[in-house]
């Protein structure tokens, strides 16, 4: 049963309140752990990972409830990641942040928070945010490729790709794979070979293999279409007509070819102009 607009509005208000509380918790933990500032109440933990994951989840939930917020949120991401010169500024910002983290690690090697090799450090938090953004970017790509109203069969491969980024970011931030050692060592304490290699690899290796096969097949198929479109464009760049061939539409405007991959359902909606 779909939610009513009134229910969505109430839930959205609740989510905003929780986001505010979560941001306050993040600030308190950061000030306490990094600068040793004391507070007249118990500090809710020493690590930022759990509140950060909760914040990202809350943003996603709010995006599902509040359409204007979602469009504004994704519109900003689209502008930063795909528009020139904004994308140059955004990627430069990411490089500056990564460089600053590296410098801080060399400057304070004994501080766990700046150790880029450590789990749940500032570097891990930064990587988790980037993976979250990558997951959203993949979903935006799916909507651009098939449309938001496309069937699940068409969108599912893209959504699976996005879920890989989301899960890696979640795992990296909260350390899901690290718990495999705690779970398995009491069960098989004498299995030296099992524990010599990181325990989580025994569980993740089959999943990683399946994901690699799926992603390879998925992207090779996409690249094949793009390569085919580029090859066709080079051959027919000067033909000022519209032609259809194996799911590709080649459109030449004022003598310059512009090609894009279209689904068969899309082709039926376009007028066919016979070639000369």
Give a verbal description of the structure:
The chain has 276 residues and is mainly alpha-helical. 67% of the residues lie in helices and 6% in strands. It is built from 10 helices and 3 strands, in the order H-H-H-H-H-H-H-H-H-E-E-E-H. It has a 3-stranded antiparallel β-sheet, with helices on one face. Helix 3 crosses helix 5. The longest helix is centred in the C-terminal third of the chain and has 37 residues. The protein is globular and about 50 Å long. The C terminus is likely disordered.
In short:
It is built from 10 helices and 3 strands; from the N terminus they run H-H-H-H-H-H-H-H-H-E-E-E-H.
Name the descriptors.
276 residues; single chain; mainly alpha; globular; 6% strand; 67% helix
Whole-number mean pLDDT: 78
**Portion in beta strands:** 5-15%
Distance between the termini: 54 Å
**What is the chain-wise order of helices and strands?**
HHHHHHHHHEEEH
By DSSP, the count of extended strands is 3
Counting DSSP H or I runs of 4 or more residues, the number of helices is 10
- As laid out across the biggest beta sheet, the strand order is 1-2-3
Largest sheet: 3 strands, antiparallel
Task: Indicate the percent of residues in helices.
Answer: 55-70%
Structural category is mainly alpha
Q: Could you list the spans in which at least 5 consecutive residues all have pLDDT below 50?
A: 234-276
Principal-axis shape equals: globular
Rg calc = 24 Å
